[in-house]
DNA sequence: AAGGGGATTGAGAGCGCTCTCAAAACGCAC
DNA sequence: GTGCGTTTTGAGAGCGCTCTCAATCCCCTT
């Protein structure tokens, strides 16, 4: 019997059992090639026998890496985190990609505005190798602060101001334009829109797409603004109906709001799509279950997450990455338009 | 000018600037009382001036703590992660509580069954101080393996077999019984149920509650089984209608399935609640937006998350904790019943 | 058989922090 | 002033791992 010291086995323990030095065990554990097959096998056996697992803290201390990537969800996004399928979807994509790369996912749900300080502290303390930022509102100072600390940052969504850091986004305007053109092409004569918050690029760009599509026509834009929630969609739809009872189509900047809008339309006695055509944006699960089912602009949610992770990892590995990656959207036809 | 060494400041740097020893700086940073006010102030100033942030890896190496808690979402749960409000809701609760305790949240989304090994590795490597397990299916070997490694584990949901580890759950059966009793009391004469998966305690217990409520009556149980998704709720409802066209009420084991059931009822031309009363379970956001709005059994989702975190932290701190914590549920009356 | 060169291996120096233990400093009673 | 009991402070030993650098092997070549 080996007299194994008590407690978790360390490199030293393994080395002793295998009759080699710590350095050699380290080489085997980290897959270095410069180890003779026989020795490698003996070490591997010792590792297995002892159930050795490297201590990540010790490793980080010397490598200066942690193999951890933070996913930061700022306050406003946290609020809708469990009501919306978007962030969980992105998060899942990020998780998938990180798992594939054997990195860990640290989730920072900033439930209070004060969490900013906490986030910076983590990053400053080199707790993480990189940061994925979800959902930036307005002129968030966070990305700049992070960049200043020299940590790779990739954001979901183009920032409002000048982009001083890489981001992934989808072609909001293009997708919306296609959707509104589709409505025009089907003969809709009075197309309104329920826009998203105008302090978020997603809100702004989708509205811009709507305006762009209408620009070449004789239709005047008709806009109500919501905040991406169902309630706001309902309220906005009612307002639009009141303002323009004759509208026969509406592009809604999110599926959740579209669901609310459908409800308001139903309550107002309008038939969809006969009286009013509705097109949403996102293509989250609910779109397949509204009544009627929702025609919508699909954005590749999980793919956004995967790309975010991939870019931040590449950046952390010292690679240069594209300052922006814009993923395509796609009009998905269902019953509502 | 101080000649500050380049790179991140360490304890040493701070110590030199403040003219004290490393130990003293450590004491100040960690809030030990045994430091003279004057010295403490000088050290604090140096810390501020240098922007010193402790290196968590170095700290973990000696303290044997990481201040990280893992939230593990097994494969099946990951699949529904972005379509359901339950797990994101629990996760949010966990995040809140951990933030308050200044702990970090490591998210392990097990996208493949093979991730088990990965999870164990993290835990074994002492990457985390504790583990919160969400959604255990059947006889999952994971908690036992984790316990064996001596890591505090707290599960969301009572395990199927004998509970060898602490868990938090809600009073499924009690809540359902109350709901079905309510239906009985309102004169419903043929009450069916759409149950959840029978390899999950939530599925089993809710069905048991239904049976229990019917036990004292002359009604025979009428059961269809779903898997907590909307689709399965729709399918199950159709099956029930076919089997028993005369049913006048249905308790559905999740809001998402209830939403599907409502749709199936509408398509079958049944009015809710006039022809058929519907009660769901969960009280997620969608319950307030179905048509008609959904009467449902509320479970305190975020609170479950908070309790999970609290218990695992207490356990990690060496405290003894309750082997089980059962939170109450509550019938929320809306339009559907 | 000797010499050279690449392949393997091991010794040892940290990485930045905590914590024990002993020394130094201080306060106070006498 | 002396002595004793507290505080307060500092020195130094690791925590477990990686990585450089030098030593040792081995295998050819001549």
Automatic annotation (TrEMBL), chains A, B:
Coiled coil: none annotated. The keyword Chaperone does not apply. The keyword Transcription regulation applies. Keywords: DNA-binding, Transcription, Transcription regulation. One of its GO terms (molecular function) is DNA-binding transcription factor activity. Residues 9-63 form the HTH lacI-type domain. It holds the Pfam family Peripla_BP_3. This is LacI family transcriptional regulator. It comes from Antribacter soli.
């Amino acid at each position: 019997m080996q007299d194994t010291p008590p407690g978790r086995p360390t490199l030293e323990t393994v080395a002793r059992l295998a009759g080699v030095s710590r350095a050699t065990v380290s080489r085997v554990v980290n897959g270095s090639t410069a180890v003779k097959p026989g020795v490698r096998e003996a070490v591997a056996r010792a590792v297995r026998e002892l159930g050795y697992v490297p201590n990540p803290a010790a490793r980080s201390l010397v490598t200066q890496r942690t193999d951890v990537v933070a996913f930061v969800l700022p306050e406003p996004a946290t609020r809708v985190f469990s009501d919306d399928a978007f962030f969980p979807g992105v998060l899942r994509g990020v998780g998938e990609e990180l798992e594939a790369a054997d990195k860990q996912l640290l989730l920072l749900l900033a439930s209070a505005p004060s969490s900013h300080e906490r986030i910076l502290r983590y990053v400053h303390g080199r707790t993480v190798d990189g940061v994925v930022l979800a959902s930036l509102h307005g002129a968030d100072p966070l990305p700049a602060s992070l960049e200043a600390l020299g940590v790779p940052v990739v954001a979901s969504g183009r920032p409002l101001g000048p982009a001083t850091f890489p981001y992934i986004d989808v072609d909001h305007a293009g997708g919306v334009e296609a959707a509104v053109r589709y409505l025009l092409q089907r003969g809709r004569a009075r197309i309104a829109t329920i826009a998203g918050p105008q302090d978020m690029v997603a809100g702004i760009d989708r509205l811009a797409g709507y305006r762009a599509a209408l620009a070449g026509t004789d239709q005047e834009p008709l806009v109500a603004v919501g905040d991406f929630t169902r309630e706001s969609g309902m309220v906005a739809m009612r307002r639009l109906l009141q303002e323009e009872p004759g509208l026969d189509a509406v592009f809604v900047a999110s599926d959740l709001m579209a669901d609310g809008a459908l409800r308001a339309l139903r309550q107002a006695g309008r038939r969809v799509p006969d009286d009013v055509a509705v097109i949403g944006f996102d293509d989250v699960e609910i779109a397949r279950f509204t009544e009627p089912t929702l025609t919508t602009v699909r954005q590749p949610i999980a793919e956004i997450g995967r790309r975010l992770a991939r870019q931040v990892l590449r950046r952390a590995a010292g690679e240069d990455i594209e300052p922006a990656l814009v993923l395509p959207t796609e009009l998905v036809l269902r019953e509502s338009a």
